[in-house]
Amino acid sequence: MHMLTDAHNRTINYIRIAVTDRCNLRCNYCMPENMHFMKRAALLTFEEIVRLMQLLSTAGINKIRITGGEPFLRQDLLQLLYKLSALPGIENIAITTNGVLTQSFIPQLQDMGIRHINLSLDTLQEKKFERITHRNEFITVMQTLESLVKHNMQVKINTVVMQQVNTDELLDFAALTQQYPVAVRFIEEMPFNGQGNSFSGIIWNYEKILDTLRTKYTLHKIPDPPYATALNYHIPGHLGSIGVIPAFSRTFCGTCNRIRVTPTGGLKTCLYGQDALNVRDLMRQGMNDADLLLQIQTAIHQRFANGFEAAAHNHHSKMESMSVIGG
């Protein structure tokens, strides 16, 4: 098997595919309220995603994460998941969701062997949830969390740490791991809001987050899985675990094993970089599989050593919204 590798001797076996740019929430750090969505014809089709993954699975990609926008807004998502889960070589499919529409699909996900769910949740307070998301869906999301745990899904709670927004809740989130066998992951804020808004990521970096958690809890370092983006810890007596992701500090770039595909087919070899190429356009121009794979491998081989280099070469005056990147 021909593996996808870059010039820094990193093997790529993990892809994040954003299947839609639409979302039913409007979190300030992710999507502007006046977001202009792509026309359906601009998005990757069912057939294009399947073709891409059939091709990449032959080149060593064995893990897929489905993202958005909110993936459950895509009407053919379940059919797509069934198709992808049946591909030879695909060992793991995970989904990142906001939990608003997720609960009713849990049995079908289990039938497909999909058990890894990342739930985006930035507050445990109902009124603050509405301020952050501009939607009144807190109770629904918490019901989804309860149902995921009840069905023995492997749940990670993704919490973006934002200055003067939810930093007063870090200890409350950590307390969740006492009650639930979940991984609560605190993520440094990133500048991908599509609005050029002020950015607090440097203030609340992963070290400050850890220092705050240690004011109440003893954190025992536990081994990080290969290619992990999170620094992982366990609080004695708790069922779950704590993770801190240096998304802005970018301490994990040296072991990066992933690429991203945006809803419109942009291939990103780094979250902080521009699209390296567009797989949608190449497929619609009639490119055959061998040439398409060669183009992808060439783009991967040319990727930067880390997110700082990629950002330095990204000449967009305003960062895209995370919902478009599918980060």
TrEMBL record:
Gene3D superfamilies named in the record: Aldolase class I (3.20.20.70)
Superkingdom, taxonomy of origin: Bacteria
Recorded GO MF terms: GTP 3',8'-cyclase activity
Domain (Radical SAM core) ranges: 7-226
Membrane recorded as keyword: no
CDD domains referenced in this protein's UniProt entry, alphabetically: Radical_SAM (cd01335), Twitch_MoaA (cd21117)
SUPFAM superfamilies documented for this protein: Radical SAM enzymes
EC number: 4.1.99.22
Keywords in alphabetical order: 4Fe-4S, GTP-binding, Iron, Iron-sulfur, Lyase, Metal-binding, Molybdenum cofactor biosynthesis, Nucleotide-binding, S-adenosyl-L-methionine
Recorded catalytic activity of this chain's protein: GTP + AH2 + S-adenosyl-L-methionine = (8S)-3',8-cyclo-7,8-dihydroguanosine 5'-triphosphate + 5'-deoxyadenosine + L-methionine + A + H(+)
Cofactors named for this entry: [4Fe-4S] cluster
Protein name (record): GTP 3',8-cyclase
